[in-house]
C-alpha cells in the first residue's frame, strides 16, 4: 500500500504504528497541539511503565492486562558451548489481551 | 492499577485538562493500538515495548466438559514484547 503520510508531514510507515502517529490521533481526538499530545502519550506510557516497575500489575479494561511474573533462580546452559550458567531470579512482564481485543483482531 | 486509576493519575498531573479529555486521551491511545493490530500492523513504542499479532493455525479442539471435538478456526492473537529499557528497569531492585 502507498504511504500517504499525513497533515503533519510525518511519513508514517504503513506497516507500523509509532508514537508520532499515536500523538497525531490524539491531536485529532482532543484538539490540543501536536507537541502537547506527544507529551501526553509519553506521560501515559511512563505512568504504565512506572506502576509496573513499582511491582504493580496494570489492567486496562477492554484492552488487556500487563502482568508481572516473578521467576526463581535456575541453572541455564549456553546452548552453543553447553556450559552451565546460573540465571538469577528476575521479573518478566507478560501481556494478557482482553477477550474484546482478541475479538477485534479477528473481526472481518 | 486499573484504567480509571490511570485516568486519575494523568488528570492529577495535568490540572489544565478536564477528566473528559483525559478519558478521551486514554481511549484514543488504546483504541489506536487495537485498530492497528486489527489492520494487521505492528505497534512499536521504543522503551516501552511492541505489540504485534501472531497467527494460529486451525485445529481440532475438545470441549473439556463433554469431550466432544470442535474445530477451532485459524486466528490471530495479540502479542506484546516488552522493550529493552522496561525489561531492564523491572529488574533493578
TrEMBL record, chain A:
<dbReference type="GO" id="GO:0030527">
    <property type="term" value="F:structural constituent of chromatin"/>
</dbReference>
<dbReference type="Pfam" id="PF00216">
    <property type="entry name" value="Bac_DNA_binding"/>
</dbReference>
<keyword id="KW-0804">Transcription</keyword>
<dbReference type="InterPro" id="IPR010992">
    <property type="entry name" value="IHF-like_DNA-bd_dom_sf"/>
</dbReference>
<dbReference type="GO" id="GO:0009893">
    <property type="term" value="P:positive regulation of metabolic process"/>
</dbReference>
<dbReference type="InterPro" id="IPR005684">
    <property type="entry name" value="IHF_alpha"/>
</dbReference>
<comment type="similarity">
    <text>Belongs to the bacterial histone-like protein family.</text>
</comment>
<protein>
    <recommendedName>
        <fullName>Integration host factor subunit alpha</fullName>
    </recommendedName>
</protein>
<dbReference type="GO" id="GO:0006310">
    <property type="term" value="P:DNA recombination"/>
</dbReference>
<keyword id="KW-0238">DNA-binding</keyword>
<dbReference type="GO" id="GO:0006355">
    <property type="term" value="P:regulation of DNA-templated transcription"/>
</dbReference>
<dbReference type="GO" id="GO:0005829">
    <property type="term" value="C:cytosol"/>
</dbReference>
<dbReference type="InterPro" id="IPR020816">
    <property type="entry name" value="Histone-like_DNA-bd_CS"/>
</dbReference>
<dbReference type="GO" id="GO:0003677">
    <property type="term" value="F:DNA binding"/>
</dbReference>
<dbReference type="InterPro" id="IPR000119">
    <property type="entry name" value="Hist_DNA-bd"/>
</dbReference>
<keyword id="KW-0805">Transcription regulation</keyword>
<keyword id="KW-0233">DNA recombination</keyword>
<keyword id="KW-0810">Translation regulation</keyword>
<dbReference type="GO" id="GO:0006417">
    <property type="term" value="P:regulation of translation"/>
</dbReference>
Automatic annotation (TrEMBL), chain B:
<dbReference type="GO" id="GO:0006355">
    <property type="term" value="P:regulation of DNA-templated transcription"/>
</dbReference>
<dbReference type="Pfam" id="PF00216">
    <property type="entry name" value="Bac_DNA_binding"/>
</dbReference>
<protein>
    <recommendedName>
        <fullName>Integration host factor subunit beta</fullName>
    </recommendedName>
</protein>
<keyword id="KW-0238">DNA-binding</keyword>
<dbReference type="GO" id="GO:0005829">
    <property type="term" value="C:cytosol"/>
</dbReference>
<dbReference type="GO" id="GO:0030527">
    <property type="term" value="F:structural constituent of chromatin"/>
</dbReference>
<keyword id="KW-0804">Transcription</keyword>
<dbReference type="InterPro" id="IPR005685">
    <property type="entry name" value="IHF_beta"/>
</dbReference>
<dbReference type="InterPro" id="IPR020816">
    <property type="entry name" value="Histone-like_DNA-bd_CS"/>
</dbReference>
<keyword id="KW-0233">DNA recombination</keyword>
<comment type="subunit">
    <text>Heterodimer of an alpha and a beta chain.</text>
</comment>
<dbReference type="GO" id="GO:0005694">
    <property type="term" value="C:chromosome"/>
</dbReference>
<dbReference type="InterPro" id="IPR010992">
    <property type="entry name" value="IHF-like_DNA-bd_dom_sf"/>
</dbReference>
<dbReference type="GO" id="GO:0003677">
    <property type="term" value="F:DNA binding"/>
</dbReference>
<keyword id="KW-0805">Transcription regulation</keyword>
<dbReference type="GO" id="GO:0006310">
    <property type="term" value="P:DNA recombination"/>
</dbReference>
<comment type="function">
    <text>This protein is one of the two subunits of integration host factor, a specific DNA-binding protein that functions in genetic recombination as well as in transcriptional and translational control.</text>
</comment>
<keyword id="KW-0810">Translation regulation</keyword>
<dbReference type="GO" id="GO:0006417">
    <property type="term" value="P:regulation of translation"/>
</dbReference>
<comment type="similarity">
    <text>Belongs to the bacterial histone-like protein family.</text>
</comment>
<dbReference type="InterPro" id="IPR000119">
    <property type="entry name" value="Hist_DNA-bd"/>
</dbReference>
Amino acid at each position: 500500500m502507498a504511504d500517504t503520510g499525513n497533515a503533519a508531514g510525518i511519513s508514517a510507515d504503513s506497516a507500523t504504528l509509532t508514537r508520532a502517529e499515536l500523538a497525531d490521533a490524539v491531536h485529532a481526538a482532543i484538539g490540543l497541539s501536536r507537541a502537547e499530545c506527544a507529551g501526553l502519550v509519553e506521560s501515559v506510557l511512563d505512568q504504565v511503565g512506572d506502576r509496573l516497575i513499582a511491582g504493580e500489575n496494570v489492567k486496562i479494561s477492554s484492552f488487556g492486562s500487563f502482568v508481572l511474573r516473578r521467576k526463581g533462580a535456575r541453572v541455564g546452559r549456553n546452548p552453543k558451548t553447553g556450559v552451565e550458567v546460573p540465571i538469577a531470579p528476575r521479573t518478566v512482564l507478560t501481556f494478557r489481551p482482553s477477550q474484546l481485543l482478541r475479538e477485534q483482531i479477528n473481526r472481518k | 492499577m486499573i484504567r480509571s486509576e490511570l485516568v486519575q493519575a494523568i488528570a492529577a498531573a495535568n490540572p489544565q485538562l478536564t477528566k473528559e479529555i483525559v478519558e478521551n486521551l486514554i481511549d484514543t491511545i488504546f483504541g489506536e493500538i487495537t485498530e492497528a493490530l486489527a489492520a494487521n500492523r505492528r505497534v512499536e513504542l521504543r522503551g516501552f515495548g511492541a505489540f504485534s499479532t501472531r497467527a494460529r493455525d486451525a485445529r481440532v479442539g475438545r470441549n473439556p466438559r463433554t469431550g466432544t471435538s470442535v474445530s477451532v478456526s485459524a486466528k490471530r492473537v495479540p502479542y506484546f514484547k516488552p522493550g529493552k529499557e522496561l525489561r531492564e528497569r523491572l529488574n533493578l531492585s
